[in-house]
Amino acid sequence: MLDRVPLGELLNSWYGRVGVLKLLLLLAAVSLAFYNRYWLTPKLPTEPEPDQPEPTEPEPDQPEPTEPEPDQPVPTEPEPAPPAALSQLRRSVRLEVLVLAVALLAGATLAQIAPPVAGASGSSGGSFSERAAFGTGQVELRVDPGLRGMNEVHITALGSDGRLMPGVEDFELSLSLAADNIGPLKPQMQRITAGHSVSYARFPFAGEWTVLVTSRLSRFEALSAVFSVPIGP
Length: 233
Hints:
Layout: H1 14-40, H2 84-111, E1 128-134, E2 137-144, E3 149-158, E4 172-177, E5 182-185, E6 190-193, E7 196-203, E8 207-216, E9 222-231
Antiparallel strand pairs: 1-2, 2-3, 3-7, 4-5, 4-8, 6-7, 8-9
């Protein structure tokens, strides 16, 4: 895990926290197994071997043993209750299995979390809102919450009068992280109205992302704007 996450970021990212939790659970499971094997198991009572009586010849004047009458119940000895050591061992083994199950769950969760990118700790992220020139008007890009993972991205094209720009129907979104050679990622846009679209885009890593907004007005004409969006961890 230390080959993916610097030591100083172990507790500053979800990847590091889940990894530390998994490590602690595995250490707890190993400790329980050692405790069960070398401390509780030797305390279990061992059954003594039955004494083998020496064979003796029956005396001639001794009457042969008679079987009990069928209507008389044969007395049976009650089964002894399990010793305290056995009950304690059973509880400890159940706890060991539970800890291992939680460790496996933490490992499966860890596989779904992307490790933080080295050098991206300077990007604090947060909600992003900025405008750029877009033909005769402007285009506004809003990214929320501005953190690694899923983000809500709004694109709005505004004319010089501040109203929605006419003729702009759809947008294309392109995401790139040059520092790690990622992209371009092209999430699907959902049209709300002419000049306004939304997308739920996933930024898999923290860092300074380049976001390209494009709208094709015709076969030979297109508008575009480039934004630099900081995404936090």
